[in-house]
Each structure stands twice: as C-alpha cells, then as structure tokens.
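Explain this record to help learners:
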Amino acid sequence: MGVVYEQIKKFKNKYPGTVTWHRLKKHSEIVEKHLNPGEKVIYAFAGQKNDLWYDLFSTSAIAITNKRILIGQKRVVFGYYLNSITPDLFNDMQVYEGLIWGKITIDTVKEEVVITNLSKKSLAEIETNISETMMELKKEYGQKEK
C-alpha cells in the first residue's frame, strides 16, 4: 500500500466523522501515480470535492507534498480527475464549520477548490498543514525566481 493511502487511513481513524466512501485506495493510487521524483507526501486526507454538503459521491484523496497539493479522484468506469495546486497558484484558504461537518475552500488564481463533509475536529489540523506548507513553499518559490 502507498504512503497516501496509509495517511488517509490514519486520518479516517482519527476523524471518523468525515464522510468518505469506499475506493479510497483507488483515489490514493491516482495521487501516487502523479508524484514527481523527489516529491514527498507531508500530509494526506480524504473528503468530498464539491461545494454541496448533500452531494456525498465525490470522494477524493488530497495530498500535501513538499512541492504542491494534489487532489485525485478515480472515476467508477474509466479515467480519473487530478488537480494540482502549486505554490504560485495558491492565493488563500477559507475554513467553514457547520452544524455537523466543515469545509475548506482553497482559492487559487484560476478556480476555487472546495472540500466538504470534513469532520469539524479535523478542520484545524488540515488548515495548519495546508497553510504552513504553502507559505513555506511560497517563500522558496519566490527565492528561485530572483
């Protein structure tokens, strides 16, 4: 089993209130397939990649690496979806805690990526990992361009 799937299993055990369905292993394989040489997974979790709390069938694997954020989703019949958010495209992030679940909105230059139906207890941990990693990578990215 891959490192992304192992981290997602730990996340699910720690925060069982997060709504994710089966096929987490398949979603994780998509992310692992697109890891570049030298890229290491820092943190991984799963959630629904959509903006609707009642849409429970968009489970995705999200991995924060030492270079970017990867969001992978294996389609049921064939193919897959992959989003890659690099530090230069990352603008900011919003965290919303609702009555039952929470959501995180990652604002990029091109679009907003929304991960919903996350356990309310997991929001602070996810936010910390994303913001700390992206801010560190933005510093490194800015130094490389000079």
